[in-house]
Amino acid sequence: MGDNLKTIEAENVSYRYPDGSVGVRDVNLEVYSGDRIGLIGANGSGKSTLILLLSGLIKPTEGRVKIFGKEPDKKNVEEIRRRIGVVFQNPDDFLFNPTVRDELLYVPRQLEWSDEELERVLKAYAKMFRIEHITDKPPFRLSGGEKKKVEIASVLIYNPEVLLLDEPTAYVDGKTRRQIMETLKSFDGTIIVATHELDVAKKLIDKVVLLNLDHKIEAVGGKELLHDIELLERVGVL
Q: If you ran DSSP here, which 8-state letter would residue 70 be given?
C-alpha cells in the first residue's frame, strides 16, 4: 500500500450519465502513494468513467471522491491539476495546441517556468519520446502513435505525483507500445491504469481492481487475479 499516505479515496461512488446510462455503481477504493493499480475490465465496464472520477474531472452522482484529502472544488482544482496527470484513451480528446512544442510546454508555461527550464524540459522529453523531428508540426497532422507519445509526454513533462491512464497503448504500433511501456515502468509515482490488455497490466501494476459488466468492482487483489481464468471470463475480460 505504498507508504500509507492516502492520495485518492472513493466512498460509495456511483455515476450516471445525463442520458441515464450507468458509468459505475457503488465503488469504494483507496489509493495510496506509490500504488501501481490496474483497473481491469471489459469494454463498457466503467474503466474510463472511473478514471474521470478518480482524477476529479467529473463529480459522482452519488458518494464522494477525495483527492489528497479534499473533495475537488473551485478552490483546490488548480492544485489538483498540478499534482495529477491524466492520459485519455483517444489523444484527440487531449491535444489542442497549434504545435507539438506548444502542447508539451502548455502546463509548464501555466506554471510560469523560466525560458531556460522550458527549453531544457522540451529537449529532454522530445528526446525521451523520440519526437524531436515533429515538435513544429500541428498535432492533427501526426499519426496515432505519434499523438499518443505527445499526449503522454505532455503529462509527464510537469512531473505529476499521480498518473491516471486510460488504455495507454491504444492506437499504437509495436515499437511505440514498447517505448510507452518502458517510460511508464520507470515512472516514480502513483499509477492508475485502465486497460483490458492483461499483458500491459502484468508489466505495469501490482494491484488489481477488477470491474464487471454491471459497472461494479468484482474483486480487488494482487496480480494473481490476472491468472484467475474463471474470474476473468466471468467479468468478460477473456
A: B
The type of residue at 155 is V
| DSSP structure class, residue 191 | E
- H helices of the chain, in order, are 47-54, 77-83, 100-110, 115-128, 144-156, 174-185, 198-204, 229-234
- Give yes or no for a contact between 84 and 160, defined as CB atoms under 8 angstroms apart: yes
pLDDT in tens, 47-66: 999 999 999 999 999 999 99
Half-sphere exposure of 82 toward its Cβ, with a 13 Å CA cutoff? 10
Phi, psi of 115, deg, nearest 5 = -60, -40
Residues with Cβ within 8 Å of residue 155, at least 6 apart in sequence: 85, 86, 87, 163
Q: In the prediction, which pLDDT does 171 show? A: 75
Q: What does each C-alpha distance from 54 to 58, 64, 172 come to in angstroms?
A: 8, 10, 25
The CA distance from 103 to 152, in Å, is 11
| pTM, 2 dp | 0.91
Q: On the CB side of 103, how many CA atoms lie within 13 Å of its CA?
A: 32
3-state secondary structure of 139: helix
Instruction: Give residue for cell 456511483.
Output: 14
What residues does 22 pair with on adjacent strands?
16
